[in-house]
Amino acid sequence: MVPIRRLDEDDWRLLRDVRLRALLDAPEAFASAHADEAAMTAAQWTARLRGGAWFVAWPEGAAEPCGLVGALPDGREWFAVAMWVAPGRRGSGLAGELIAAVVRGARRAGTSVVALQVNEHNSRARRLYEKLGFRPTGQIETLPREDGYTRERMSLALAHRAD
C-alpha cells in the first residue's frame, strides 16, 4: 500500500509538478491543456488547493509522487477530478486507493455523494469505478476539443459510518 496524503496550501509546488506530469503523460485523459496549467501562477495553484481536497500517493523513499486526485466540494457532493496514476503503477490498485481517500474525506465532511466523470473510451477506469460502487448517471458531456472527447458522469451514494 502506497502512503496517500492530503495536500495543504503550502504544497502548491507539489500539486503543480504532479499535475503537469499527469498532463504530459496522458493529455487525452484531461480536459485541461499542459500549456494552460504550466502558465498558472503560484496564487492560482494555491487557490486550487483552497478550493478542494487534493491527495497524492507517494511511496516511501521515492523521488516523486506516483498518483494524484482532487475532489471539489459542491454542496452535499464531492466531485473527483484530475485522477492520475504514473505509468509504472497502473494496474496496481493505486487508483482505487486514491478514490478511497476521496471517499473517506467526503464522509468526514458529511457529504452524501462522490461523483466523477470517466472518458467514454477508458473502459479500465469505468470497470474500476463500477467495482468501487460508482454507477453511471446517464449524464454525458462532449468537450469542445478536436478529438470529440466525451465523458460520462458516475456517482457513489455514501452511507455514513465511522472510518
Automatic annotation (TrEMBL):
Molecular functions (GO terms): acyltransferase activity, transferring groups other than amino-acyl groups
Domain N-acetyltransferase positions: 2-159
UniProt keyword Phosphoprotein, yes or no: no
Tree of life domain: Bacteria
Keywords for the protein's UniProt record, in alphabetical order: Acyltransferase, Transferase
Pfam families xrefs: Acetyltransf_1
Family matches, as InterPro entries: Acyl_CoA_acyltransferase (IPR016181), Bact_Acetyltransf (IPR050832), GNAT_dom (IPR000182)
PROSITE patterns: GNAT
Stretches assigned to coiled coil: none
Cross-referenced PANTHER family: AMINOALKYLPHOSPHONATE N-ACETYLTRANSFERASE-RELATED, AMINOALKYLPHOSPHONATE N-ACETYLTRANSFERASE-RELATED-RELATED
Name of the protein this chain belongs to: GNAT family N-acetyltransferase
